[in-house]
Automatic annotation (TrEMBL):
It is a multi-pass membrane protein. This is CASP-like protein. It comes from the Eukaryota. InterPro entries: CASP/CASPL, CASP_dom. The gene is LOC104775830. Homodimer and heterodimers. NCBIfam families: A_tha_TIGR01569. It comes from Camelina sativa. The keyword Isomerase does not apply. The chain crosses the membrane at residues 20-40, 60-82.
């Protein structure tokens, strides 16, 4: 993306989308890991036996898929860090002017 086209709304949009996709992929990985755990161990409370003893190739492929998913989560975390760095170093924090004292106060801290 060219530097001249990096407006504040566009950078905020990329930051929010990076965060959204990171958490979405993380949630999908967590659900997949839980299903894989149940496939390996079953659940005695509801008399659900393990499926990996019958469908071994499925469990191997699902294990590889969960591992790849968590590598993707790591890459999205790095992408989110990069977009947050670009957002918070390029633009000043928004400020609020206190009308009683005519003092400009930064919203995000000092």
């Amino acid at each position: 993306m060219p530097r001249s086209s990096s407006t504040m709304p566009r950078v905020w949009t990329f930051f929010c989308l990076d965060q959204l996709l990171t958490y979405l992929v993380l949630a999908a990985g967590a659900v997949s890991a839980e299903v894989l755990y149940l496939a390996y161990n079953g659940d005695a409370a509801i008399t659900w036996s393990d499926a990996c003893s019958s469908y071994g190739s499925f469990c191997h492929k699902a294990t590889a898929s969960v591992i790849i998913t968590f590598f993707v989560v790591c890459f999205y975390v790095v992408l989110s860090l990069i977009s947050s760095y670009k957002l918070f170093t390029r633009f000043d924090p928004p400020s609020i002017v206190d009308s009683d004292k005519n003092i400009e106060v930064a919203v995000f801290g000092s």
